[in-house]
Amino acid sequence: MSHPFLQAGAGVAGLLLSVSPAWADSAVQDLDAIVVTATATETSLADAPASISVISRDDLLQRPVLDLADALRGTPGVTFDGIGMGRRGIRIRGMDSEYTLVLVDGQRVNAASDAIAHADFDLAWIPVEAIERIEVVRGPMSSLYGSEALGGVVNIITRAATDVWHGSLRHGGGVVAGGHGGGVSRTSASASGPLLADRLGLTFQAEHLERAPIRDRNDARLTEQEGRDADTARLGLQWTPSATQRIDVAHLAGRERRVRDALQAGRVPYVYRSRDDIDRAQTSVAHRGQWRWGDSQLRAQRATLDRENARDVGAATGPQALTDDTVDGHVTLPLGERHRLSAGAEWRRERLEDATVNIAGVVSGVHRAVFVQDEIDLGVLLLTLGNRADHHERFGWHHSPRAYAVRRFDSGVTLKGGAGAGFKAPTLKQLSPQYAAIGGGGMFEIVGNPALRPETVTTYELGLGWSGDALSVEATAFRNELDDLIQTICTAACGIRGAERRSYVNVAQARLQGVELGARAELPAGWSLSANHSWLQARDVASDQPLTGRPLRSGHAALRWTDAAWNAGLRLEHTGRQWQTGTAGLVRLPGYRLWSVDLGYRLTERIALRGGIENLTDERLDETSALYAYPETGRYVHAGVEVGF
Hints:
Low-confidence stretches: 1-30
Number of strands: 38
CATH topology: Maltoporin, Chain A
Strand content: over 45%
Largest sheet: 22 strands, antiparallel, barrel
CATH class: Mainly Beta
Mean pLDDT: 88
CATH architecture: Beta Barrel
Distance between the termini: 62 Å
CATH superfamily: TonB-dependent receptor, beta-barrel domain
Number of domains: 1
Number of helices: 5
Helix content: under 10%
Radius of gyration: 24 Å
Shape: globular
């Protein structure tokens, strides 16, 4: 008997084959941009078997981007959740941030949040200068990428070497209104070109970022947002020994210091200064080949992250070190005229050094996986069927199937939909029977649970889009059903400070469903207008209560104008009302809007000026409620200069 997800996918395929919308005939807008994240092969954006958004390099240069969260602002279906210490995580379709897998050129970076409390270090791996584009897949992609891809995938595609030497220098910064700190200074440089013509190319990007802490308006002793001092650099070599072979070698290194002033709760509260020193590195080697029978890719990577904490008062968190070693590869070959078959395997070893994880202070795990995917061209219909089998040392084999269909019509209409499944294995800490750590400012001790099961999700989506000469619109409906979600519960001495004991358990079921709408119009005289809106219903199935921190509605709109020298834009970001947990139970928080303006002017072919104002109306969430999960920055005025060569 076939798998139920494949049956669902076949049903969607039948629907797509049978439906023929009677839209007026119109030329199709150019949707031939190439993406790779949805299939691990090159596919046009229009034919990608997933809900996918692409953020271009030009998009990133038009606004201030300090980390990946800033880069994704305004992306359909993307919101943020607070992970503590004023830090943000990326939510896709309401799924928690630890279910968003971050990739660099298709290779995963350390999932720091799995091992380090309140960690958002995954968001600052790459200097902005190194980014060519960002592909965001909404919905589980465990059929290709395994665990952590439960909610979606963010794939950062880096810049490749150019045929002639090019480079740039950028410097800019800004200030936050109100005199509470938050000033930013950023300098970056990039260079790219051939070392040996048509054989060996080099890319280099580096960035230095300083951001002063933002003081808490209600208590000047504390910081609302921490201070940051970071240096990142990336060096890449691309060797093409022949027209059909390519070898890429890259090394990424970063150093970051974060400082914050916080309040230690307890019988005698006190203010302390905490500093995190984070060092990260990623080294990768990849080979791509084109053969008579098809294409191949083989990669090896090591990613490390070291974090040390210091406090001027009280006990600091012990040092933590993460190491991920990964070897993966796949082959893609055509089978006749209608099939493009891909098959691959992955080996990954995780190692965590942390004194709290067990007596030895070290725990590791090995993951193995194989996947197969068939992209079937049925003429009027593109059908993608795939499955990945992951082997976990504790849980054995776990399957993640997916079926997706895309149908394009001559009228410019595209209909797509599918079903799939995903999973997330418990972290090394959560599974360790000897793991014990103090949480809640000394309120409780939390311990590991080796009896945990993986969290799983089943998802369905159906989308419809239309593209004409100057207008495109799209709508997508989705439903995610989550099982065995891991939460912490009190197991002993509940409510007694210092004596309460908690553990991880599989207790929760959740359902998240909604609709995403989007439109873009090219207007006369260099004007363009784009907008998206998402509606989300997220509920805990067992308690029939709403999930907190997820806005019912969210959206983004942008009006832009461009001519030969000038460009300007007005942006609106809407975050709707949401539920949060207060002292007396659930509290509904009001929605809010952030207006921003961008302005750019090209003095010469090589010199450009950029500036703008973020949060133009100085919207302050702490004036409405202290329960919002993370603080939005107040009015931020910024400017910068770019010099190219």
